[in-house]
Amino acid sequence: MRLVLLGAPGSGKGTQAARLETHLQVPHISTGDLLRAEVAAGSRLGLEAKEVMARGELVSDAILLGMLEDRFSRPDTAKGFILDGYPRNLAQADALDALMHRLGQPMDYAVQLEVPQELLVERIAGRAKAEGRADDAPEAVRTRLQVYDSQTAPVIEFYRQHGQLTVIDGVGSLDEVFNRIIEAIAPSNPVG
Q: Is 142 considered catalytic here?
């Protein structure tokens, strides 16, 4: 199963991705982790990304897409994957869709975890306090959420138009949210 996990910061994507990875027996691919691993490994694309980041610039979509294409060619993705952190905008969604079709492996689902903004702010503020993160102050969080909403609204619509979008209520216990996801993507094989 090839799955894109969408959701605002604090929606629980990372937590649910880890649980889905174990349940579905497919790798969780976070573009942030992938980027750091490629830089650390000194791969050709990792070195290109390192140069870009050293200049204080964002890594281009072309570099990220190249890293993803390489990652999708590895044997552990033969049965699928859970993609977290990409695509973040419409251009990335288009590029990913073209790549997956070229590889003959179209995306199965895009799962959006929907959580009310005020709850997201509370969750992230709690995380900030526990981890001492200044970028998670309530006003900074609201700004990040506005940017997320403006950039990802077209991505959500992209997957809706392609008939791949599944919207999941991200409020509840970890098990409740996990079970909602599993029931939505594999209704004939629910979690007991």
A: no
Q: Looking at the whole model, is its pTM more than 0.90?
A: no
Q: Which of 71, 123, 144, 180 is catalytic?
A: 144
Q: Domains plus CATH for the chain?
A: 2-30+79-185 (3.40.50.300)
Residue 127 annotated to the active site = yes
Q: Please report, in tens digits, the pLDDT of each residue of the chain (192 residues total).
A: 999 999 998 899 999 999 999 999 999 999 888 988 999 999 998 898 888 888 887 788 999 999 999 999 999 999 999 999 899 899 999 999 999 999 999 999 999 999 999 899 888 887 777 777 666 677 778 888 888 888 888 999 999 999 999 999 999 999 999 999 999 998 654 444
Active site residue 133: yes
d(CA 187, CA 109): 13
Catalytic residue among 88, 123, 129, 142: 88
Q: Is 7 left (phi over 0), alpha (psi -120 to 50) or beta?
A: left
